[in-house]
Design goal:
By secondary structure, the protein is an alpha+beta fold. It has 18 helices and five strands. It is 47% helix and 6% strand.
């Protein structure tokens, strides 16, 4: 049962009436009905606590007093549905430990054989997930599944059973389950929905982690939500292992890879931001992810200017960092210079010389900087002037009109070559026939 937002929680009592004010009789009856309903029909995640109650302790005492054999069988058929729900929690060790004797688990196994039914399987499957890996619960689930498989042949058992894929008490249950999913080509997300597996419980978390550490690209299809869930729960070493295996998948469809990389980016950000998980990965893996970050950020920023996007992507390997100034402005950091691009002015970006790599040019990172770094009001030189003087210093406007974009490329090639050759300047003449982009026309 799922409680919707805005609906009252049956587990909460009504607010107390003011002193001297009697609560309406209808309100008392409604609250009492809700409390009784919750007691009779607990939520699945609440069933694990059933044996902590007085009812569970009384049942444990009755089971302990019965001898193993016919007396236990007779007791099994006397149990109410509420008492039957406490069997698996008792196996998990809930309740008073002093009540249980050495043969107590064997009696519970016998009760499960006698009362095997779909509702008991549902209770057991929830407890199996919540207490994994609990040997006693796993053994009981295997016994229960065996009986239900026989009943299913005559139309009296639930389908599907987890034993259809792997025996619950198998020594390497997770490994066998993963083999079955791979063999039957069942996506992880589809399995978790069909078998009602929660990623918030130990079994689900163990399965998700193992699946994504297994280099099987088929399990990545449809498993994004599970990957996202576990990535924020596990420790740093497992996070690095999950990323390593993700980056090693060379056959993932581009759309699938893109969705997973978005999850990684939301969790850890750009490697340049310094999250410790990036230090545990290979340099080539980090470099490949950075290329994706650069391409994805540029593609999103320039989605209405595809020609500009292609221009920047030609230089993606030289971009050391990308930073968002605001919702419209992107800062692209190259060796020795920064480009500020505002997507609301698609025909011009501003180039900033950056002599010191660790410092923002012209105080771009300072709190006193009020003006947008891509603003056309900032004084800047024309790109043709920089080309004519073979100068990369100061602030220079980079045009992106049909003609100007080619010469912005010529200028950037010069800047990058200048850095790679240790500052030696290669003179080149201004392209003939280009008059430059007039910033005042925007």
């Amino acid at each position: 049962m799922i409680r919707k937002a805005g609906h009252p929680d049956p587990g909460r009592t009504a607010p107390p009436a003011e002193e001297g004010e009697a609560q309406p009789r209808e309100g008392r009856s409604f609250q009492a009905s809700l409390a009784a309903s919750r007691q009779l029909l607990p939520l699945p995640e609440e069933m694990v606590y059933e044996a902590d109650t007085e009812t569970g302790d009384r049942l444990a005492a009755r089971i302990n007093a019965a001898s193993l054999g016919q007396a236990t069988i007779r007791l099994a058929h006397e149990l109410t549905s509420r008492e039957l729900r406490a069997i698996f929690p008792l196996l998990a060790g809930r309740g008073d430990p002093e009540i249980r004797s050495g043969k107590f688990p064997d009696k519970l196994y016998m009760i499960i054989r006698e009362r095997a039914c779909p509702s008991l399987y549902q209770n057991g499957w929830i407890l199996f997930q919540q207490t994994y890996p609990c040997p006693a619960v796993a053994r009981a689930m295997s016994i229960l599944c065996g009986i239900l498989e026989i009943k299913r042949e005559t139309g009296g058992g639930p389908a599907p059973l987890i034993s259809d894929l792997a025996a619950p008490d198998a020594r390497h249950f997770i490994r066998q389950l993963m083999r079955a999913l791979s063999r039957d080509n069942i996506p992880l997300e589809a399995f978790m929905k069909q078998y009602h597996v929660s990623g918030e419980w130990p079994l689900g978390a163990a399965l998700i982690g193992a699946c994504f550490l297994n280099q099987n690209a088929g399990l990545y299809e449809g498993g994004q939500s599970q990957f996202n869930q576990i990535l924020g729960q596990v420790d740093l070493d497992l996070q690095a292992g999950l990323l390593h295996h993700l980056f090693s998948q060379t056959d993932l469809p581009p759309d699938t890879r893109n969705r997973y990389y978005q999850i990684v980016y939301r969790q850890f950000g750009d490697p340049a931001a310094g999250h410790p998980v990036w230090e545990q990965l290979k340099k080539r893996e980090v470099a490949a992810f950075r290329r994706w970050v650069v391409a994805a950020t540029i593609g999103s920023h320039c989605r209405k200017s595809p020609e500009k996007a292609r221009f920047y992507l030609r230089y993606a390997e030289h971009i050391s960092q990308i930073e968002t100034w605001d919702d419209y402005t992107l800062l692209l950091y190259f060796p020795g210079f920064v480009i500020a691009d505002n997507r609301r002015q698609p025909l011009l970006a501003l180039y900033y010389d950056q002599p010191q790599p660790i410092e923002h040019p012209f105080g771009l990172a300072g709190t006193e900087q009020k003006q947008n770094p891509a603003s056309l009001e900032i004084p800047h030189r024309r790109v043709e002037d920089a080309i004519r003087r073979a100068s990369s210093q100061g602030i220079i406007g980079l045009p992106f009109d049909e003609e100007g974009i080619r010469y912005s490329g010529v200028f950037l090639n010069f800047c990058l070559q200048e850095r790679l050759t240790g500052g030696r300047r290669h003179l080149f003449r201004r392209p003939a026939g280009y008059n430059g982009y007039d910033a005042g026309d925007d």
